[in-house]
Amino acid sequence: MMRSLWTAGSGMTAQQFNIDTIANNLANVNTAGFKKSRVDFQDLLYQSVRYAGTPVTQGAQIPTGIQIGHGVRPVATQKIFTQGTFQQTDNPLDLVIEGEGFFQVLLPDGTIAYTRDGAFKMDGQGRLVTSDGFTLEPEILVPSNTVTVSVGADGTVTAVLDGESEPQNLGSIELVRFVNPAGLQSFGRNLMLATAASGDPIPGTPGLEGFGAIAQGYLEISNVVVVEEMVNMIIAQRAYETNSKAIQASDEMLQTANNLRR
Predict the structure, then answer these.
(1) Does 9 share its domain with 39?
(2) N or C of the chain: less Cβ packing under 10 Å?
(3) Do 145 and 200 reside in the same domain of the chain?
(4) H or E segment at 258?
(5) Is 108 helix (H, G, I), strand (E, B) or coil?
(6) Do residues 174 and 106 both lie within one domain?
(7) Whole-structure pTM value
(8) How many CB atoms sit inside 10 A of residue 121's CB?
(9) How many CA atoms lie less than 13 Å away from 57 in the CB half-sphere?
């Protein structure tokens, strides 16, 4: 059986995976805090028919060898953590990180998850929570008689209560960052988990020690660039088509060999 059938088949499979990733990027073009992914590819094993450097006569050796590749495979989907564009909402509970850092979210099982999505709400107890009801960590509790809530660039949360003129301190929002944020594990709901590849979370104060400052009344939109993804999709589609042509050519060559007669 011709090697090219399997080689071109691996190319088609790889480009299908590439299209799947591009489609997910485009589907989340308006998802707050979403970071686009990129597929990294790697060539497969090579069969060496003739080795470079093999002696042929005294004082002479083969300058270049003969190697036949066996295709390609995807080896990584890397998150690209460039800053997304900011959208002004004027909602006092919408927060954006101007720079590096993640919000911390407490899951029901006690696990801490991380997100760039700053679209927070208040639950029935006055706690700041995500759209799924997961509590912001450390917990911020807003009194029921609050008139206005303010969040400073350093994460300090204050509130003006009904009948009072002086703002009351409700606590501070703490950010974390990672040595390798691309190693975080995404599991949906705009949340990510730390892994051995990402390293341990490094806590810090917004606006200090390399952490981004917090801006109130804004959301960070996805960093997906539609035109860029459309170009990538065209390239992947043409690569898929070209690999299918290689399979077709291999099939026609086999057909010609099968039609040979004495």
Answers:
(1) yes
(2) C
(3) yes
(4) helix 226-258
(5) coil
(6) yes
(7) 0.86
(8) 14
(9) 0
Report helix, strand and coil shares of the chain as percent, to nearest 5: 25, 35, 40
Which residues are CB-neighbours of 62 under 8 A, at least 6 positions away? 50, 51, 52, 53, 54, 55, 56
Confidence of residue 262 (pLDDT cuts 50, 70, 90): low
Joined together, the tokens standing for residue 60 give 């002479």
Give the chain's length. 262
Q: What pLDDT, in 10s, does the model give residues 177-212?
A: 999 999 999 988 899 999 999 999 999 999 998 899
CA distance 116 to 38: 19
To the nearest whole percent, how much of the chain has pLDDT over 90? 73
Which domain covers residue 122, as residue numbers? 86-220
Lookup: tokens for 184 = 């975080």
Q: Residues 6 or more apart from 184 whose CB is under 8 A from it?
A: 79, 114, 178, 192, 193, 194, 195, 198
In total, how many domains does the chain have? 2
- pLDDT of 4: 86
Structure confidence at residue 1 (pLDDT): 58
Q: Which amino acid is at 123?
A: D
Q: Say if residues 208 and 16 touch (Cβ distance below 8 Å).
A: no
The residues facing 146 across adjacent strands are 161
